[in-house]
Amino acid sequence: MRLVLLGPPGAGKGTQATRLASRYGLTHVSTGDIFRTNVAQGTELGREAERYMDAGELVPDEVVVRMVRETLEGIDGGFLLDGFPRTVGQAEALEAALSEAGRPLTAVLAFDLDDEVALRRLAGRRTCERCGAVFHVEFDPPEGEGVCDVCGGPLAQRSDDAEETVRRRIAVFHETGDPLRGWYEERGLVHAIDADATPDEVFARAEAVLDAPAKAAR
Length: 218
Ligand code: AMP
Prior knowledge:
Bound molecules: adenosine monophosphate
CATH superfamily of the domain at 2-26 and 77-114 and 171-217: P-loop containing nucleotide triphosphate hydrolases
Number of helices: 9
Structural class: alpha/beta
Distance between the termini: 6 Å
Mean pLDDT: 93
Oligomer: single chain
């Protein structure tokens, strides 16, 4: 199975991607996570990406596409792309790479969420600096304030979850993400999932789409 997850920041793509990857045995590729690792390690790619990320803007297509092509070359089985593509240009590059390799996409899951709900979710999001577990100060608070329930590591706000940056990220999502979704709709690949529900409910909706006989056969 080869999947793309679309949706605004805050729709829960990362959470669902982790669960879907484990349920279906897929390699989870998150371009945001790859950039954040590179920023933390101070690589050249990280230095290039950081200024765009902190402004809530997209990293230029050529940089992202090169990085994803290299990542996909190292993956044999199924995969799930989380945070890529984000523009029609990236989708075209992905389509070309996958058709060259004879591995077209199976489905695109579009997680729908109202902008104001997305904003509230992101403003309260806290991530463990050690293990990456995600909490929410209001909707999913950790037992001890600022401390990860999983590994005891310190919780922090992602630098691009500051309110101004989040507003810009949501605006960018509509500018480039709405046409992108239309592009995939024209190809008959999109399955819309209402993401305004608990993680378990959203996961069950995604499973229902993927377990439909036509998809399970691939
Ligand atoms: P995410 O974790 O998916 O919300 O990504 C965080 C940030 O990384 C985004 O706001 C962008 O600056 C950058 N980024 C991640 N994926 C892409 C992409 N496919 N194209 C351009 N920029 C990206």
